[in-house]
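Journal club prep — side note

Before the paper discussion, L.F. wants everyone to see what a predicted structure for a comparable chain looks like in token form. Sequence:
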Amino acid sequence: GTNTQRWAFTVVNGRADVEAFGEHIAGVFRAVNRVASSGAAKAISKFVPGDPIKEYAAGYKEKIEEAMEEWRTGTADRLFHGAPVLILVSSLPGATTGPEDALLATQNMLLGAHALGLGTCLIGFAQIAMKLNPLVKPKIGIPWREKVHAVIALGHPAASEKYVHVAGRKKPLVRWTTE
């Protein structure tokens, strides 16, 4: 994007720091679930196109509550999958094509990590949480004006992880012009 190179990479290094960051993310979703359980919020949401609270409750609320309970009790880590390192990819103010540049850099990191035998996972819920509550970003050193576009969990995959096949893919929508 006009070679502005306005990207930034924040590394959360070490399981203790990953867990501390996870607690901030969990706090955002606990708050979201409280709002989604509120009778007043449900009533107001009915007047918003698409009824976002009803949609959230139908698709995510229960699963997020389960994941947050597992996080709280230490039973499982469905947020970061036990990763010891996170890389947050963001764009700085003034970037011409900030999201595009950040996501291209993200893809290159994912491919590079795979080539090194490392496991990765994009953590969309962490990125969404920072969009919902920008005050989470400064807690890990990211200025509030930066936009986080990707959160990558990074680590060594379990030796027993063997994939028989890749996840199914929907057929893409492809358009051909006829001029």
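L.F.'s comment for the group: The chain has a mean pLDDT of 89. Keep this in mind when we get to the figures.
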